Amino acid sequence: MIAHVETASAFTEEQVRIVPANEASWEDLVAIFGTHDYPGRCQCQRFKVRGWIWRDSTQEERTAMLRVQAACGRPKFAATSGLVAYVDDQPAGWVAVEPRTAYPKLRTSRVPWSGRHEDKDDDGVWAVTCFAVRKGYRGRGLTYLLASSTVDHARDHGARAIEAYPMIVQPGKEITWGEAHVGLRQVFEDAGFEEVTHPTARRVVMRIDLQGGS
C-alpha cells in the first residue's frame, strides 16, 4: 500500500535514498511502474525493443525484459539498468542509466547523432533514457535527484561521459507524462549537464564529460 504523501514542497535529499536497481526488490520496481499508465505499459523498453515497441513486443515480454535488465535482488551482480529512489523508505522513482550501447534503438534515432560525429560503439559513453515516478510522488522534484545520481553512478562504473536527450517545455505547450519520460531540459541543467546539440524543436542532447573515467 502506498504511504500518505504530503502535498507541497519538493523532497529533500534527507528524505530520499537512491540505490542501483539490483539492490532493490522486484516488488518495489513493480510498485513504481504500475500497470496502467505509460511507464507501466512501456516497462522502460522504448529504446530496447529493436522494432516498433507496441507492434514488436508484448506487455509480458517487456516486463520480463525489465526484470532481467534490472537484476533486482542481486546486489553482487555486475550490471543493472537503472537506479531506484525511495522516499521515506517507500519505492517512489526510477531512472534508466547504462552504457549508450545498451540501447539498440538509439542507434537508429537521429536525435543522439544529428550534428555530431560519435562512435556508436563507444561503451565509455553512458546515457540516461527514462524516468518513472510513482503516482503520489510526482511533481515534487524527484527527477532532479535521480538525474543527479546518474552522474556519480556512471562515473563509479568507469564512464568517460554521460548524456541525455530531454524534452523542452515550450511556452503555451502542454507536455504529457509519456513524452516527459526522457526527462526535461531543466532537470539535466540542474544536474550539471550542458547542451551539445539541438536536433529538433523539442529535443536537445545534453552531456557531461566525466573526469577519471576509464
Structure description:
By secondary structure, the protein is of the alpha+beta class. The protein has a single domain, classed as 3-Layer(aba) Sandwich (Aminopeptidase). Helix content is 25%, strand content 22%. The protein contains seven helices and seven strands; from the N terminus they run βααααββαβαβαββ. It has a seven-stranded mixed β-sheet with strand order 1-2-3-4-5-7-6, with helices on both faces. The longest helix has 15 residues, at 142-156. The termini are far apart.
List keywords for this structure.
214 residues; alpha+beta; Aminopeptidase; 7-stranded mixed beta sheet; 7 helices; 25% helix; globular
Q: Mean pLDDT, as a whole number?
A: 91
**Radius of gyration over all CA atoms, rounded:** 16 Å
CATH C-level class: Alpha Beta
CATH superfamily: Gcn5-related N-acetyltransferase (GNAT)
Order of strands across the widest beta sheet? 1-2-3-4-5-7-6
Write the layout of secondary structure elements.
Layout: E1 16-20, H1 26-33, H2 38-42, H3 53-56, H4 59-70, E2 82-87, E3 90-99, H5 110-113, E4 125-133, H6 142-156, E5 161-164, H7 185-190, E6 194-200, E7 203-209
Parallel strand pairs: 4-5
Antiparallel strand pairs: 1-2, 2-3, 3-4, 5-7, 6-7
What is this structure, in a nutshell?
With 214 residues, the chain is α+β, with helices and mostly antiparallel strands. The chain has helices spanning 26-33, 38-42, 53-56, 59-70, 110-113, 142-156, 185-190; strands at residues 16-20, 82-87, 90-99, 125-133, 161-164, 194-200, 203-209. The protein has one domain (16-209): Aminopeptidase (3-Layer(aba) Sandwich).
